[in-house]
């Protein structure tokens, strides 16, 4: 019986360590079972049979203590399964929830885009944001954040996570003039104080000379009273 377990494992190209990982049984314990130095319990037998993709009756005629293995007739009479040609199947559950992407794809200076609550489309929700209230996504506008983010890439935020220096964010700011739609930027967060918000981008700002200081070339500043919200980006998606 025990040598039969090892033979089935070898036929499938499964190492002792891999079988231990698949069954949550230690490699030492499996080795003792294979060598006949340890009895085979029903719980362990079921795990090993599942990992090797065989019926329970194919690896054990008797359990520890002499307890016979009894299988339903329909299963016991089932013909042997062919040897698998790949790793055991691992079920993957795909998210069913959707999440909205908002804003106008066409952007303005330094990657600014309009974020006025207008939904562009719904896409499958990143797993980390399922059931997160008020989570949303936007399309990246412009090349100011390359190579971190590229134009047209979708980014998603969890509005309930605190923002820290160095985080990548979606910053919402008021329009420049009364009646203008709110704007937004995908940038790296530097700081926000009572006086204002400071963001940073990877590439030189539009219209700024290469001879300018790093702050002028890469940083955007907004008065605090113009800042609507700053939300941390937690996921990306190539739609």
Topology of this structure?
Layout: H1 2-11, H2 16-23, H3 27-34, H4 42-52, H5 73-76, E1 98-102, E2 113-114, E3 119-124, E4 136-139, E5 154-158, E6 168-173, E7 183-192, E8 196-200, H6 214-218, E9 219-223, E10 227-237
Parallel strand pairs: 1-4
Antiparallel strand pairs: 1-3, 2-7, 4-5, 5-10, 6-7, 6-10, 7-8, 8-9
Describe it for me?
The radius of gyration is 29 Å and the shape is elongated. The chain contains six helices and ten strands, in the order αααααββββββββαββ. The chain has helices spanning 2-11, 16-23, 27-34, 42-52, 73-76, 214-218, and strands at residues 98-102, 113-114, 119-124, 136-139, 154-158, 168-173, 183-192, 196-200, 219-223, 227-237. Strands 1, 2, 3, 4, 5, 6, 7, 8, 9 and 10 form a ten-stranded mixed sheet that branches. Helix content is 19%, strand content 25%. A hairpin with a 3-residue loop joins β7 and β8 (196-200).
């Amino acid at each position: 019986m025990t040598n039969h377990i090892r033979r089935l494992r070898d036929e499938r190209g499964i190492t002792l360590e891999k079988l231990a990982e698949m069954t949550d049984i230690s490699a030492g314990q499996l080795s003792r079972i294979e060598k006949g130095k340890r009895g085979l319990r029903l719980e362990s037998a079921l795990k090993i049979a599942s990992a090797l993709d065989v019926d329970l009756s194919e690896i054990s005629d008797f359990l520890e203590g002499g307890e016979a293995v009894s299988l339903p007739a329909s299963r016991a009479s089932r013909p042997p399964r062919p040897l698998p040609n790949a790793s055991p199947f691992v079920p993957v559950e795909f998210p069913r929830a959707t999440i909205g992407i908002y804003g106008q794809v066409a952007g303005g200076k330094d990657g600014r885009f309009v974020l006025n609550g207008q939904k562009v489309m719904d896409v499958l929700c990143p797993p980390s944001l399922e059931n997160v209230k008020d989570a949303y996504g936007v399309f990246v506008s412009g090349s100011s954040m390359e190579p971190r983010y590229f134009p047209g890439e979708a980014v998603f935020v969890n509005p309930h996570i605190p923002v820290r220096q160095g985080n990548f964010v979606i910053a919402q700011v008021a329009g420049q003039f009364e009646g203008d739609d709110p704007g937004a930027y995908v940038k790296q967060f530097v700081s926000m104080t009572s006086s204002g918000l400071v963001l940073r981008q990877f590439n030189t700002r539009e219209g700024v000379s290469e001879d300018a200081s790093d702050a002028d070339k890469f940083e955007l500043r907004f008065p605090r009273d113009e800042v609507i919200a700053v939300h941390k980006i937690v996921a990306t998606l190539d739609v």
